[in-house]
Amino acid sequence: MASLDDELIALANHLQSRREAILRAWRIAINRDPALTSSDALPYVDLYDHIPALLSTFERQLRSSQTTAVEAQIEVGQAHAAAHGLQRWQQGYDLREVTRELGKLNEIVVAELEGYRCVNAQATRESNRLWASLCSTGIEESVAQFFQLQQQEAAGHVKDLEAAIQGIQQLEKQRADLWREAAHDLRGNLGVVANATVGLSQSGLPEPTRDTFVRILMRNVTSLHHLLNDVTELARLQAGGEQRRVELVDVSALMQQLCEGIRSVAQEGNLFLHCSGPDRFAVQGDEVKIRRIAQNLILNAVKFTRQGGITVTWGDSEGNDPKRWRLCITDTGPGFHSGSDQPLTQALEKAQQQATEVRHVEANTQDLLAAATAAKGRTPSATRTARGSTGEGLGLSIVKRLCDLLDATIEMTSETGVGTNFRILLPRHYGA
């Protein structure tokens, strides 16, 4: 009869030769278990994780005849089990799945041991004892590590909730500032309209002066129209009145059509508006909301850019992410005076600070009216007005809300005097 050590070594060699078969049987058992779903999305390497190392530890235990060597292998096994618990936590498992998965491994290995049948009965008992010890300590260490991470995560959630409450308070303050800015812009535009109307009512007004008042009136009536639309749209978005309507969209056709419609506006300011992307680029999405996102960003870029122009690009995301596509709007404007590491919410705050040009418009129409009243025969000097910038904070808030509604992420990089780039990543497909 073979000695105990020889029997255990032979069993270790057998298990080593059968390791792939054991892992395959374990994988099949997991896939067939309806209670184990987190493993479905994992490639084999991530699924196996530290399990092969645990099996290797068991094989080394069988080959070790000294008690100290066996104890050292147990410590190694505990380390692998703890690492397994960490990995499963990172992969999104819950605690029940972790223990159930290790239980499946125990069933497979026990079946393998029973099928081997050592000649020496003592070897059978010893191998069963070693595996039972390693498996129980392994489950204990894996679960303990997982539970510790859960506790740390829970503590982090508490801190996140506290930070979220502060964030909500700050957001409410920003929202109040945004509406206050919108109200100011509305009042400013109405003041300009009122002043221009008074100017037009003057009798004997020279034709050049009348033409100037008409241009001011039309420009501010148009600005009022856009601003009221933005206010209504933002209110609807904040109230949850918008729904996502997913359909197949040819982004190339959509962007080409949009840019063609806005190009004349850009050319009025001696700006270029370039667009480039694949000839055909079909994705799932909400065509209306994608158009509104792009339109808001392009028009805002046109408003603030004084020389150069705007470039619109679309296509595959960087790294060929199969789940996302990108939409970028880049301008050569003055920038937001905010670094690329600042979140969009800070950019919105900066944008609100820039929405003050209507005050200059109002002051200029007041001056023009006074000049026209004092000397009707004199042509007024050119006003200081530039293309309107009111409602900028509203426009970016609408873009952010629409991106949230489409499960899209928006990033902004801006450099003073160089320009601003908005990069939006949108899903290619949406679930049912």
Reading side by side through the largest sheet, how are the strands ordered?
2-4-5-7-6
Shape: elongated
The profile of the biggest β sheet is: 5 strands, mixed
Q: Please indicate the count of domains.
A: 2
- Kindly report the average pLDDT value: 75
The succession of helices and strands, N to C, reads: HHHHHHHHEHEEHEEHHHEE
Strand content: 5-15%
State the helix count: 13
Kindly identify the CATH topology of the largest domain: Globin-like
Which blocks of ≥5 consecutive residues have pLDDT under 50?
A: 338-363, 375-392
Specify the CATH architecture of the largest domain: Orthogonal Bundle
Secondary-structure-based class equals: alpha+beta
In the CATH scheme, the class of the largest domain would be: Mainly Alpha
Share of helical residues: 55-70%
